[in-house]
Design goal:
alpha+beta, Zincin-like, three-stranded antiparallel β-sheet, 11 helices
Amino acid sequence: MTSIVLLSGGFFISEKEMKYIGIQEQISSNNRKSILLLLAFPLLILAVVWAVIFFFNFTDDGPPSANTVLEIFIPTIPVVLTIVGIWFFIAYFANSAMINATAGSETLSRKENMRVYNLTENLCMSIGMKMPMLRIIESPALNAFASGINEKTYTVTLTRGIIEKLNDEELEGVIAHELMHIRNKDVRLLIITIVFVGIFSFLVQIAFRSVLYGSMTGGRKKDDNKGMIIILVIAIVAYLLSILFKFALSRKREYLADTGAAQMTRNPRALANALRKISNNHHVEKVQSEDIQQMFIENAPEDTSMNFLGGLGGLFATHPPIEKRIKILEQF
């Protein structure tokens, strides 16, 4: 049985045993994970390149020797890392503009939304946190997300529906949840995973279109088309591994943000009530990007392309079941 006990300065989360998780410990943990991800994803990309070279050099006599593969692989390392570095630099530092444009969000006017500003400012003052920017998505759905990589870009985005349908205590719980994502550095960690998973997604799309084009035109040699199929299979495997890791991180951070929000507001039932309302109408139709969808406070598997996996879709779910989150909050 899962249980949570709220303490001053930190909180417990436990499945089989009680484990204390403090705010600073969570921030340090996410900082370490950010560094590991910066190392792990380029290594996975290099592993893909190595696998492609290995399978492309198969002959009738069998697989290539290790020396043969290394002779081809080693000169590609600086080229691959340079391309990945440029991609990461552009995507990482331009993420706020891209997220706002993709979500179709607009700046939330202070004059017309003093209620939201007052709730956010009071929460930030209670924990000594700089107030993030506030933005709105004009949608009747109930949802919200946090984004940004530093104090200049940290943003909490709310839908029109969640502002209008929740009472003050419930909306305060939702805003506190998003502030916890910012405070815990979850948003930065998520941006890093989105950038690198995007690279694998791009490789899969290129390989798939190349295979499809070759099959339709018939202009490519049989061996060339076979080679592109190999690349496609390797890219798909790497992509699935990367999103499994990303989604596992996402599910854990939702529990921690829920618990941190309960600690911040000292009103866990308000957030539980908010999640219950959100569960009935959370899908934001105008936001088609799954990268944005996974940042929302709720994002069910049936709302994404992973729906076709049926029961296996849970492995690729970005959020834990909302019913379980509500049950945990109601145990405080």
